[in-house]
Amino acid sequence: xxxxxxxxxxxxxxxxxxxxxxxxxxxxxxxxxxxxxxxxxxxxxxxxxxxxxxxxxxxxxxxx
Length: 64
Known about the structure:
The chain is an alpha+beta fold. The chain contains one helix and four strands, in the order E-E-E-E-H.
């Protein structure tokens, strides 16, 4: 069984700065640090989360 290495999950927003979430402890950070400031996990990279698509769809739905 292969174990996943710790990584940042990048949450991109349409009009706000990107947020980064630790895959181990779910701590939020303003940028992708080499180590998680909360749990100390050494990060192996960044994976993107396409949540900005939901934001764009909501804005389109309401005509914003």
